[in-house]
Amino acid sequence: MLLDLGKGNIMRLSGVFYRGLVPENPVFRLVLGMCPTLAVTTSVEKSVGMGLASTFVLLASNFIISLIKPLVPKEVRIPFFIVVIATFVTVVRLLMTAYTPALTASLGIFLPLIVVNCVILGRAEAFASKNSPLSSLADGLGMGIGFTLSLALIGSIREILGTGTFLGIPIVFGLDPYTQNIFILAPGGFLTLGLLMGLFNWLGKRKQSPGVKPPSPPDHCRTV
Question: What percent of the chain stands above pLDDT 90?
Answer without folding.
Answer: 56
